[in-house]
Write a structure and sequence with these properties.
The protein has 601 residues and is mainly α. It has helices at residues 4-13, 16-25, 33-42, 47-60, 63-77, 84-91, 95-108, 113-125, 129-142, 147-159, 163-176, 181-193, 197-210, 215-227, 231-244, 249-256, 265-276, 282-298, 302-318, 324-337, 340-345, 367-375, 388-397, 413-427, 449-455, 468-476, 490-510, 520-525, 527-537, 584-590, 592-596; strands spanning 356-361, 380-382, 437-440, 460-465, 515-519.
Length: 601
């Protein structure tokens, strides 16, 4: 057997693409990038090299570079040389030029299936997914063996949110080529989006077999393991990510986000070094500050912890365009539109299904705990924070010149019935247990209670409310994966909380009894009594399993995933008090809402 030195010498003597293939086979995928670039400098039409490079970029997390590589691969393998200029234009981002050339070709050769496929790629770039789907369906009807066209169709269906159909298209592709990187990555993403995190983790584990040296792959796998409650494995994955790339700020934050993890001195020192570096990006600086704040907090260094939280949030606030006045204005418009007369005139509208239970409020309010309790009932299935109501609100906002929710006033009865029907259809892939009810836990849906009432009048709405200082400070200590742009400034947080209380008080007045409110502190103090009250409001019998919610092994993707796997406790209720000396901006923004809690002022 040749020595490592001999193998290295043989690789150096091989052509660049062969070097890259050998390195990839050894799991040294990052080292394969340089010889791949060398191979492509020699031959720009080497489709296999483009594909391998794109696969490495995809799993490495550089999605723009991966898309470019896949486009170049497609241009390299197009069978008709007359189509290469159009394919090259598409790969170069010259979408209009590619479309013009392809339409000209199809005018004279309408049955040129590779041209139809390329035109579908153009339509995908333009966001015209329905057109792209029709073109790809046409191609596959005449040539089902065109695997790249089927892959393109799966990608289009994924982008359109049609997960089951996308998985059906991926199935024959993966049966033919089980380790196709792009197909595996798309499958993992779809499975996570429909809540099948266990299956998604199996796929990400299989990806690591080919990409064991990719930090991003370990981070993604770790996130999935955390969602499944496999905390020790998640921790090991994050630490492996840091071994491969000691500068990964998101891995440090992921470790900090494991509530029981404690940073050893060497990792704390490494974070301090990264913070002092001049070339650390702002988002990474913020993550390092968040992680270091958690380490300080664990050590009881409250002043240092708050200073680091403040620095982390200040950096995030500068990266975002949140406008608190826009939220306040939307709340005031909602109060103006959604009057008792407005609802009375539309009584009986919408889809009559009573399946959904919407849990609304603020992040870090205890909503995940309430979701876990309800999802332990045999009639209720937990899903996740779904984006469907927000997507429908965005559609409604485009239906008239006045800002949302005013356009809802001009929609006919049939539109709300269709919205309700569409919501149930869109969320069906999330319902894997076939229970009578399911939970949509997107907290921001409190902004859309009026629209929900019109489209799904029999849906239940549960408002989970936590003490404003406790809730807002908890959010201030959390870096969110996406959204919640109001959470990175204490004054913004206070104003958002007051807007939320204001709007929910309005719905209490105009839709009396429609919203069930759960006060977090009451739930902690009298769990069984509050659970019985909540279930009664939902028309469901009490179940002992709801009190043993911590035994429920369902995946939980929110920051509270570890807490809800433990028996209920009061540990976090007064955790904000350690930071009270620095909370004056929050108290000022909350105003009378703070003194009146739990009632509205």
């Amino acid at each position: 057997m040749p020595s490592d030195a001999a193998q290295t010498s043989e690789q150096a003597d091989a052509p660049p693409f062969e070097q890259a293939q050998r390195l990839f086979a050894l799991g040294r995928t990052r080292e394969a990038v340089a010889p791949l670039h060398a191979a492509l400098e020699d031959n720009l039409r080497l489709g296999a090299a483009w594909r391998l490079l794109a696969d490495i970029e995809l799993i490495g997390g550089d999605f723009a570079a991966a898309q470019h590589g896949y486009d170049r691969m497609l241009a390299a393998v197009v069978p008709d040389p007359r189509l290469r200029p159009a394919a090259d234009a598409l790969a170069a981002g010259q979408v209009a030029e590619a479309e013009s050339a392809l339409r000209a070709r199809l005018t004279t050769e309408p049955s040129n299936l590779p041209a139809v496929h390329l035109l579908a790629e153009v339509m995908t770039r333009r966001g015209q997914l329905a057109t792209a789907e029709a073109l790809l369906t046409h191609v596959l009807a005449h040539a089902p063996q065109l695997h790249l066209a089927r892959q393109a169709l799966a990608l289009v269906l994924h982008r359109a949110g049609r997960h089951a159909e996308a998985l059906r298209e991926l199935a024959p592709l993966l049966a033919r080529e089980p380790r196709n990187t792009r197909n595996l990555a798309v499958k993992a993403a779809i499975l996570a989006e429909i809540g099948d995190y266990a299956a998604a983790a199996e796929v990400t584990a299989s990806i690591l077999l080919d990409f064991p040296d990719q930090p991003q792959a370990w981070l993604v796998h770790g996130n999935g393991l955390r969602t499944l409650g496999r905390i020790e494995e998640a921790q090991a994955a994050y630490l492996r990510c840091l071994e491969l790339d000691p500068g990964r700020a998101d891995a440090y934050w992921s470790l900090a986000n494991l509530k029981d993890y404690r940073f050893p001195p060497d990792l704390r020192a490494a974070m301090a070094t990264h913070l002092a570096a001049q070339d650390t990006l702002a988002n990474d600086l913020s993550l390092f500050y968040f992680a270091l704040a958690k380490a300080d907090e664990d050590d009881g260094r409250d002043a240092e912890a708050f200073a680091h939280y403040a620095a982390a949030n200040a950096l995030q606030r500068r990266l975002r365009t949140y406008d608190p006045q826009a939220t306040t204005a939307q709340v005031q418009r909602s109060k103006s539109v959604f009057t008792p007369a407005f609802f009375a005139e539309r009584d009986g509208w919408g889809d009559p299904a009573a399946d959904p239970i919407f849990i609304v409020g603020l992040p870090r309010s205890g909503s995940t705990l309430v979701e876990q309790i309800l999802a332990s009932h045999p009639a209720i299935e937990g899903t996740r924070e779904l984006m469907d109501i927000q997507a429908m609100a965005d559609w409604a906002a485009a239906q008239g010149p006045a800002p949302y929710p005013a356009p809802l006033a001009g929609l006919p009865r049939e539109a709300f019935a269709q919205l309700g029907h569409d919501y149930l259809a869109r969320t069906r892939p999330q319902r894997r247990l076939s229970r009578a009810h399911f939970i949509d836990k997107a907290p921001w849906n409190f902004l859309h209670v009026g629209m929900i009432q019109l489209m799904l009048p029999n849906a239940r709405i549960v408002d989970v409310r936590r003490h404003p200082l406790s809730c807002c400070v908890s959010a201030f200590r959390q870096h969110f994966a996406g959204g919640f742009d109001f959470a990175y400034d204490l004054a913004d947080l206070g104003r958002y909380y007051t807007d939320y209380v204001d709007l929910m008080a309005h719905y209490d007045a105009v839709l009396p009894g429609h919203v069930t409110r759960v006060i977090y502190e009451d739930l902690i103090e009298d769990t069984e009594g509050q659970v019985r009250r909540l279930l009664d409001s939902l028309g469901l019998p009490f179940e002992d399993a709801c009190l043993r919610f911590f035994e429920n092994r369902r995946p939980v993707a929110t920051p509270s995933s570890e807490q809800v796997r433990r028996p209920i406790n009061a540990d976090g209720i007064d955790s904000w008090r350690r930071y009270e000396p620095w909370l004056d901006p929050l108290k000022a923004a909350l105003g009378p809402v703070l003194d009146a809690y739990p009632s509205p002022p």
